[in-house]
Amino acid sequence: MSGDTTPAIACRNLWQVFGTGAEKALTDALARSGQNADEAAGALRRSGFIPAVQDASFEVREGELFVIMGLSGSGKSTLVRCLSQLLPGTAGEIRIEGENIIGADKKRLIELRRQKLGMVFQHFGLFPHMTVADNVAYPLRVQGVGRAERLAKAREVIELVGLGGREATYPRQLSGGQRQRVGIARSLVADCSVWFLDEPFSALDPLIRRQLQDEFLQIQAKLKTTIVFITHDITEALKLADRIAIMRDGKIVQIGTPTDIVLRPVDDYVREFSRDVAKGRHAKVASVMQGGAEDAGPDDPGLTTGMTLDAALARCMQLYEPVPVRDPSGAVVGTVHPSDLAAALQAEET
Ligand SMILES: Nc1ncnc2c1ncn2[C@@H]1O[C@H](COP(=O)(O)OP(=O)(O)OP(=O)(O)O)[C@@H](O)[C@H]1O
To answer: Where's the ABC transporter domain (predicted)?
Structure first.
């Protein structure tokens, strides 16, 4: 997280308020409340407006997989529709790779959508009369790429999503899961730098869903695209996310790593999400590690920062002394006391 690199997305004090005259109503409400967002949102609600996104500020780093989670109606889709400028936003600023896209003219927005901002929604809207290859190649056709080149590129990404050999198939001949893959391939082909996915796997049965999540992570590891991913499924969020933003009633109530969300929820709403999650399977050793380097003794259990608490605890069962923790390169970066591992897990049981 270096300080001087431009974030892929920077969102500042973004509001999306629904209702006639929302812009003026928001300005007035903020002025009356002394710029207090909670008070202003409350006043807007009482006057019949819907503050679907309330004063959202966050940054997404290049190559980061940023998940937005929250109950139905909490504002996830609205936020993402603002980020991709399908909705204009009532106030605030959105920068994509440094460029403020609020207020960009129509022509620029079309360019941005073609070249930078990829979108995949739950219902992918494949063209029924086009083959898999033509569906996938479609964004390139829009960009004016010649037929041979676009089909070659489409073939590459169709392979990547595991549908090699099905290029000439029509969508109706595919299963739901396969169609999702075609949709994913279609967004990959456009080579967008930022990719928005709104519940892309939610209509799938659990087994296919897990499989697609795994494949999705593999694709992401290869391509390192910046991704904003909406889900209301905590297990999916914890599995995929580098960081998670949790929304409630239009407001982002917590942004953190999966470990933060599981071990350090800011309130009962967030805690409720992760109540049934097996903490030890998601929280990492780094979250309970102390600074300082302990020399590896004879009992070094070989802990690493990215190991889950469950895995670490299993290695430390018989140990009572602080043990070293290594980073992925093998350098000792801190220590952890075995009892802290157990305590971190127990704290959440109560
Ligand atoms: N075009 C619109 N006009 C008025 N209200 C809207 C509009 N779009 C969304 N809303 C309202 O904004 C709030 C947030 O909706 P949004 O669809 O963003 O939630 P969500 O978290 O994505 O929900 P879900 O998980 O059910 O898709 C809801 O109260 C919704 O009714």
So the answer is: 38-274
